[in-house]
Amino acid sequence: MNAAAADEPTTGSAPLLLGLRTTIYPAPDLPAATAWFTEILGFGPYFDEPFYVGFEVGGYELGLDPNRDPAAGASTLWGVTDIEAACARLLAAGATPESEIQEVGEGIKVASVRVPGGAELGLIENPHFSLPPA
To answer: Is the pTM of this model over 0.85?
Structure first.
């Protein structure tokens, strides 16, 4: 993450956070967690791999991560249009890097920072995201 976008205006510009996109839950026993969510949701995942399971719920992602520490709790990702600029703006405002920007497939990028106070703020740039019609 770099601070190149630190000079961008913070008012009068497009909003930095576009809205919630994804919540990822720790799932040390991924098959059991997948079965449980399939049962309560009434449908199966659209993405099912040993490293991640994803359900599309009302246009949003409910993810299961077998490698996420249950003590860390769930991780929420907020949508952004330009993750590099968003990270730079957050760092310039006092956040600290948590995880570097990663391409996770199909042009989707994720990263996270720690906001003042220590909470994790997850970001996702997903060019494929669109809410279903109301």
So the answer is: no
